[in-house]
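Quick one:
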Amino acid sequence: MPAYLFQIELPAMTQEMANLIPEHRDLIDKLFIEARMLSYSVSSTRDQIWCVVDADDEKEAMEIVSGFPLRKFFVDVSCHQLLLHNNNPSPLPEISLN
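Output:
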């Protein structure tokens, strides 16, 4: 499946946005478990989100991002299909022979 990089601009944080963060985080965690979300980052100023989504096509990737609880606050969204997306693999736990 192709991967899509999203850059999402957010306005200044409001209480209404803050109230949605737990629901938003739960969805992001679910997408990671389903291997639909490959990476997710938020700027220290909380005004930008970058995420990489695994989807069959751009329409499906946009549908995933449109389902984010914070969606109604997005100021701008850009989507770019990636040719390549590498991650540092997670180390496997050491095997105990006991």
